[in-house]
Specification:
By secondary structure, the chain is an alpha/beta fold. The protein has 2 domains: about 10-145 and about 340-490, FAD/NAD(P)-binding domain; about 150-215 and about 250-335, FAD/NAD(P)-binding domain (3-Layer(bba) Sandwich), CATH 3.50.50.60. The protein is built from 15 helices and 22 strands. Strands 1, 2, 3, 4, 5, 6, 17 and 18 form an 8-stranded mixed β-sheet that branches. A 5-stranded parallel β-sheet has the order 7-16-8-9-12, with helices on one face. It has a 3-stranded antiparallel β-sheet with strand order 13-14-15, with no helix packed on it. α1 (about 20-30) crosses α11 (about 395-420) and α11 (about 395-420) runs parallel beside α14 (about 470-475). The longest helix has 23 residues, at about 230-250. It is globular, with a radius of gyration of 24 Å. The two termini are about 30 Å apart. About 45% of the residues are buried. Bound molecules: NADP nicotinamide-adenine-dinucleotide phosphate.
Length: about 525
């Protein structure tokens, strides 16, 4: 309890997806039990709780897309479906004793830095609390984005987003419009095509689609992974190593990706015999510029007699008629938006007010930026998991999250070593230097040079989402907190000359003081 009787914790974690639960496990392992996990929904799981659309699965193999400290020898398939991943996260919450820390139905409405007390004031749906340190693990794929289409509000039929699937709505006998052809849509379309009377896919930009090497993991393999854990570890290492070797083609030598394009084209040729349809489905940008999608059922589904592909974006809606940018008109009973998420304009950023009195969204209006993808200047003791430029084009985000958790644990350790009531605020100069280096490296990556527009780029065309290196390099740069990159904040107390003492010193000055 704080002096005024209000609930106070050492650490408040926001979100209970992979990031939030991972943070909770690492906190407990570091001996920190004075923390809460604030979750706006009624259950854990983050994006794997919210995305329950038909066909939802992960396209990173499960033995890599799981915590290193919570291996699961029982993964049923190479690429697990959403129910298995969600169940895995529920198990993590149980196995690591996280339930007592969870505050469900506890949406964070606002966070405000208190410069005198050096803590965060947090307003939640279940009342206020304060915390020395906040870990924002809200994730980039948590708030659905529905484009502002003229006439949408007056559409008389059913409308929902891929991440808010209405399982009570029966698609049988309906004319369904699927908007978008991203990772979500290409899983949804083959799954609902057999039910829908007519299915019209609005494709603004064709994706590159590669074969999906999915298969059941045999009983023998699972037995082996259970009895001889080294085999499971080896499997994970191999999956990881292959992806590490691919990174340089994306980051330094996009020219090498031509061979992969040939494979993807052959994959399409095999399923789509109609040259006119093939032409509409062929991308005109370098593979990898947008996320490479994996599917064996996408192209076959598009050739079914009840499916139409409109090679154009949705421009407006007139009554129950959807009008594409090329003028095509399609009558529909239901619209499903597979149009992605608020990634570069995370809604949580509007709710966080830092030491300068500005919100994170205001600080990030020209582009998200944070030291080592984690600490934004002016937001002391506030760490973002999957922050700016931490995303991956080809590997498991769990590796990035775990690297950031190493950084988080060291951050808390440094606070202990410095001692007393204290906060660390990333220096603006350090954030700027970090961002400059990242952006210089970004200049020649396929994400910036491949000739496409993608959710990796923000409204200003800057790539503030992807990490332009390997996961091992990210792990290396987040192994420890470099105190020289932070300002040490102490509670203001009057010094002999009247100036506040203890505030804004470097760690070296702190030690000397
Ligand atoms: P997304 O990749 O952002 O795709 C959004 C789609 O909506 C794009 O095709 C976009 O077209 C289209 N779009 C937007 N406005 C439109 C309009 N007015 N008319 C027509 N189309 C429009 O979103 P997502 O598919 O939900 O995937 C988001 C991320 O989630 C993925 O990149 C991935 O990281 C993750 N995810 C992973 C998996 C998996 O592991 N298999 C599955 C689902 C999601 P443009 O291309 O022209 O912008």
């Amino acid at each position: 309890m704080a002096d005024d009787g209000q609930r106070h914790v050492r650490v408040a974690v926001i979100g209970s997806g992979f990031g939030g639960l991972g943070a909770a496990v690492r906190l407990r392992r570091a001996g920190i039990t004075d923390f809460v996990v604030l979750e706006r929904a009624g259950a854990v799981g983050g994006t794997w709780r919210d995305n329950s659309y038909p066909g939802c699965a992960c396209d990173v193999p499960s033995h890599l897309y799981s915590f290193s400290f919570a291996p699961n020898p029982e993964w049923p398939r190479n690429f697990s479906g959403q129910p298995h991943i969600r169940a895995y996260l529920e198990r993590v919450a149980d196995t690591f004793g996280l339930r007592p820390h969870l505050r469900l139905d506890c949406e964070v409405r606002a966070l405000r830095w208190h410069a005198e007390r050096l803590w965060w004031e947090i307003d939640t749906a279940r009342g206020p609390l304060t915390a020395d340190v906040v870990i924002s693990a809200t994730g980039p794929l948590s708030d659905p984005q529905i484009p502002d289409i003229p006439g949408l509000a007056d559409f008389p039929g059913k409308v929902f987003h891929s991440a808010r699937w209405d399982h009570d709505y029966d698609l049988r006998g309906k004319r369904v419009a699927m908007i978008g052809t991203g990772a979500s849509a290409i899983q949804i379309v083959p799954a609902i095509q057999p039910q829908a009377e007519r299915l019209t896919v609005f494709q603004r930009t064709p994706p590159w689609v590669m074969p999906r090497a999915d298969r059941r993991i045999s009983g023998v393999e699972r037995w082996l992974h259970t009895k001889v854990p080294a085999t499971r570890a080896l499997r994970r290492q191999l999956l990881w190593g292959i992806r590490e070797l691919q990174v340089s083609a994306f980051t330094k030598r996009p020219g090498e990706l031509g061979l992969i394009e040939a494979l993807a084209k052959a994959h399409m040729h095999k399923a789509v015999k109609d040259p006119a349809l093939r032409a509409r489905l062929t991308p005109d940008y370098r593979i990898g510029c947008k996320r490479i999608l994996l599917s064996n059922s996408w192209y076959p589904a598009l050739t079914r007699p009840n499916v139409d592909v409109v090679a154009s974006g949705l421009r407006e809606i007139r009554g129950n008629v959807l009008v594409a940018s090329d003028g095509t008109e399609t009558a529909a009973d239901a619209i499903i938006f597979g149009t992605g998420f608020h990634v570069t304009d995370m809604p949580i950023a509007r709710r966080v007010t830092g030491a300068r009195g500005t919100t994170l969204a205001e600080e990030w209006k020209d582009g998200m930026a944070a030291l080592r993808g984690t600490s934004a200047a002016g937001f002391p003791n506030f760490l973002t998991l999957i922050g700016p430029n931490t995303g991956l084009g080809n590997s498991s985000m769990i590796l990035i999250i775990e690297a950031q958790l190493n950084y988080l644990v060291d951050f808390l350790h440094q606070l202990d070593v410095l001692g007393g009531r204290i906060a660390l605020d990333a220096r603006q100069s350090a954030v700027d230097a970090w961002t400059r280096t990242v952006q210089e490296r970004m200049a020649r990556t396929v994400w910036n040079t491949g000739g496409c527009d993608s959710w990796y780029l923000d409204a200003n065309g800057r790539n503030t989402t992807v990490w332009p290196g390997t996961t091992s390099e990210f792990r290396r740069v987040t192994r420890q907190v470099d105190l020289a990159e932070y300002e040490v904040l102490r509670p203001p107390r009057p010094a002999p000359d009247g100036a506040p003492a203890g505030a804004g010193r470097t760690a070296a000055e702190e030690v000397a003081a």
